[in-house]
Amino acid sequence: MSAPTPPTVSLSAPIFAKLTPHPFLLRTLRPSEPGAKPLRTNGRTPAETRPLRANPSSLSHAHGSALVRAGDTTVVCGVRGELLPVDRIPQFRPLPPRSATAAAATGDDGPQTIPDAAAAAGGAAIGRGELKDYDLLVPNIELATGSAPQFLPGVPPTTLAQTLSTRVCSLLHSTRMVDVEDLRVWYKPGGAGGGDSSGDGDVTMTTEGAHDAEGQEEEPERVVAYWVLYIDLLFVSFDGNPFDAAWAAVVAALRDTQLPAARWDPDREILVCSPADKRRLNIRGLPVACSAAVFLEKELSESGADAAEGRHWLLMDPDRSEETLCREVVTVVVDCSDGETRIKSIEKHGGTVIGRELMRGFVGVAEKRWREVKEVLKA
Amino acid sequence: MTVSSAPEVAFGVLPRADGSARYSHAGYTVLASVNGPIEAQRRDEHAYEAHVDVIVRPAAGVGGTRERHLEAILQSSLSQLILIKNFPRCLIQIVLQVESSPENDYVNTKLVQASLNFALMPTLMQTAILALLSAGVPMRATATATAIAVSHDKTVVDPSPRDVETARSVHVLAFTSQDDLLLAESEGDFTVKEWDDIYEAAKKICCRPAPDGASMQLDDDDSSPAAVGPDLRQFLRSTMESKVAADLHWK
After folding, report:
1. Do the domain assignments include residue B201?
2. Which residues of A touch B69 (CB under 8 A)?
3. In chain A, at which end, N or C, are there fewer CB atoms within 10 A of the end residue's CB?
4. Hey, is the C-beta of A22 within 8 angstroms of any chain B C-beta?
5. Which chain B residue is nearest to residue A340, measuring alpha carbons?
6. Residue B199 CA: distances (Å) to CA of B41, B202, B204
């Protein structure tokens, strides 16, 4: 008499994945057949990212916009400029006239000049203070209801949304992507046609006006207003790795942004914009974010120090189901546009797997990602 | 003005909390209370592990997005250290109140600031660890954290707000007591090589090997600790030793 065979329960792959996601992902990453490639449940290899697609100028009413898709994560970014007159800014500190600033970018001893940074980035050092002090960049992230099941309707912004907007804001300031000179609106009393707002690439007429004013030695040129850039991001569909997509959308939208030329009308005492005359922002560099999550073979044990025992996989560009299974995440923002790889930000928390060696290797992966994203955003 | 005071800690400052600590270092003073394991709310309840709830309250005003971000970072780091699997369906609540932060005339101190406060993060981390130790919450390891700012050619350990403002890059690194990198947050402009140097410097501060009793004095004389920053692990160990000694004094 043969031994009774144990009853077997065969489940389809989606049910298996739903019931026990961790063993399911482990099983696909560690295939039992020899020679099979380790794959994730979404069919990608651990180091494979989802192709990024960007569609700039997708919104007609924003000054700049972009729609970025990475797999099923879709984010729309709109940049809208609003004029902020300086008399509405509390504790506004007037700037020295533009000609003086340009002439003595490094030797200037203005109150906001930062010696170290001035040497590094010229006159932009002053700008960093203005951007921060007057809140000229206002990013906001909304995770739309229904973009993923965990986002419920009618709740205040989730921790994720708040964290994301802090990270975007922090990175916008630390990378100094936006040149504050683009956001200043100058006015030169007595100059022909008033002060033109454009920082560089001035039309001939304005240059002549500047010469006239220098000869007359009248009232100095002054800033009358700033453009405030409201950078709004909306996640239409959310499938993991929100920061990479959000940041790519911000970069694409800012590169797409065209602000109308604004000038001060002294007779009517209002700011006047000419929509026909638009100019692009000077965006410095091309920082690209690259994220990965660490999937552990064993979940954290109850006690003892064997937390990092067992194998682990670095899953690039994790999707939503993978993010729920991984605790440790790493995000590196790199910029290789100067030829040399400069790291703009490193964020790693939630685990102890990624040490020094892995981090070095990951920067190499991020460089590869940078080239991919550069191709997409240039198109 | 540079504030480079030695770290100080007082345990059990809040009588009704399960554990509390007031820690001050580099001009920042943070008060932490830990309650737990306590019953979790239904929405926070997890069937297999404890929920770690971190609340950061700024020195003035109510918390904004920046505090939420700090909370998220601390929460994911502390969940790694606390043995959360031992307390299913429970809540361990850590409240961190910033009591004072270094004043600075140069840096604009707006109440609501969106970007991350790097200089504060190590103090928050350290206070949370000390309060968890004071509450007797079982942990896998302890951790030590430090902040380093890199200006043009010099590195500043425990930077002041002014240092952070002028720095080219700012870094926060935390290591567990097993010398693993627990947390790494960096911002600014730097290369892999620079990050490596920072890693080395931070590891020296956070993970200095415990000196043997006899050679301790000699070591201090040799390596001039003022140059490399405080020895945080030694500080953690010695304060806990003195606390345990005081607690067991009645025996």
Report:
1. yes
2. 162-163, 166-167
3. N
4. no
5. B191
6. 39, 5, 9
Q: How many domains does chain B have?
A: 1
Cβ count within 10 A of residue A53: 14
In which residue are the tokens 């043009």 written?
A: B152
* Position B2 in a domain: no
Q: Give the best residue of A140, A162, A165 to mutate against chain B (max B CB count within 10 A).
A: A162
Contact of A54 with A73, CB cutoff 8 Å: no
Among residues 219-258 of chain A, which lie with CB inside 8 Å of chain B?
none
Check if A61 contacts B (Cβ < 8 Å).
no
Contacts of B171 in chain A (CB under 8 A): 346
Mean pLDDT of B112-135: 87
CATH 3.30.230.70 fits A52-280, yes or no: yes
Under the banding of pLDDT at 50, 70 and 90, the label for residue B225 is very low
Judge contact between A180 and A124, C-beta under 8 A: yes
Chain B: give the shortest CA distance to residue A128, in Å: 10
Lowest mean pLDDT among A161-170, A226-235, A260-269, B219-228: B219-228
The CATH number for B236's domain is 3.30.230.70
Name residue B11's beta-bridge partners. Answer: B21
Q: Is residue B115 part of a domain?
A: yes
Residue A149: Cβ within 10 Å count: 8
Closest by Cα among A135, A163, A161 to A229: A135
For chain A, positions 344-373, list CB contacts with chain B under 8 A. 344-352, 354-356, 359-360, 363
Contacts of A120 in chain B (CB under 8 A): 152, 168, 189
Burial class (CB in 10 A: 0-12, 13-18, 19+), B108: middle
Complex prediction ipTM: 0.88
- Which residue, A276, A269, A182, A166, is CA-closest to A229? A182
